[in-house]
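Re: that chain you flagged

S.,

Sorry for the slow reply, it's been a week of failed gels. I finally had a moment to sit down with the sequence you sent. For the record, here it is as I used it:
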Amino acid sequence: MTTETELQALLRFLSQDAKVSLPTAMGKIKDLQSAKLTSPAVIAKTSLFKIQTIFPDEKHAKAVLAAAKRVIKKRSLEEPETPSPAKRSKSSSIVGSEATSASVKAILALPTSTAGEEDLASITLHTNRAPLVLAFAVVLLKYTMPSQPLSSRLSLAQAAMSLISNGKAVSLGLIRKGTAAAYQGWVVRQPGVKILGREIKIMRRHGYQWKAEDEVKEDGVIVKDGRQAEQVDSQMTLKKDEGRSDAEPALWGLDLEELRSSNGAGLHVSSALMARAYLLKSFASPPADAAPSGSPNKNTSADAQAAEKKENLAKLLRTLDMLYASWAHVLAKDELDRRAWSWYVAVRPHVKEGVAGWGGKGEVKLEQILQMRRKG
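Prediction finished late last night. Pasting the structure tokens below so you have them in one place:
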């Protein structure tokens, strides 16, 4: 059977080496499994014609084949990563959508914590404002848009963070506001949802069948250069429909800054994988000279620091979940969204005013987040 590790490696190859967007890569996994193209080593020995049965665009198919050959050449001194023919034949009949679902969940899963309130209240994080906005948004969407899979919540939250950060950069004069006619006109026409009080432009994940296991069937995005869609079919955008059921279709958040820089040419989806990676690397413990007396020495290895940041993120997400859960049963979703921004403002790191504070880091005390929970 194709293992979870092998599926993750295949997703990494497609998204990093072959420059296929993560949404498209996830949508192609099942087809690649069915064709027994489960590693760069196998793909490199495959004909272009066979690859084109999965990636119909010749340019994309050639890019995948070339990337596989580059990877194999680079790893020529290593052992082949493909399973043996016997292992492949034994498992080929039981590879299915469940494995695809597991790989998607595994590669995007966020760390969890079972820490109690007392433990959480003792935690102080060292971070900057952008990843904290992202964390607030990801957990908020669990309550305001509960039908969205984690991949969509990460994409939508990333789009919200980008919009907020770019808005601040514009106000500080660090970047110019987009004025391209194509950009402005496209944004006006595109539907949106409110996240942290901002309207985030979205598109429907066409053909995505959301189920409890977070299974991706096909994203429907035609991509160029890894993230840019070459065209938008009317069926790929969320249309206002008064008769629509309460279950929202799965959505992608759109990266408007990328759209602005491209002068309105094509479509740019905010990356769920990038959002997850940003969260994992952004929540350190206070530096040794700022840590409370008696704290352990922070002169640790890179692996230990990464593990510590992962644990810190897990505790932050748990704390935010406790905050939202305490209010979700008494507040309407739009009111919960509105208050979430004020809660973020109340606990965000203190930085210098103006340009000097751009990207600056400070402390975030989880105890302050816990104190904002609803009493009773």
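What I noticed first: The beta strands are 124-128, 192-195, 198-204, 223-224, 228-229, 251-253, 267-268, 361-365.

Talk soon,
D.
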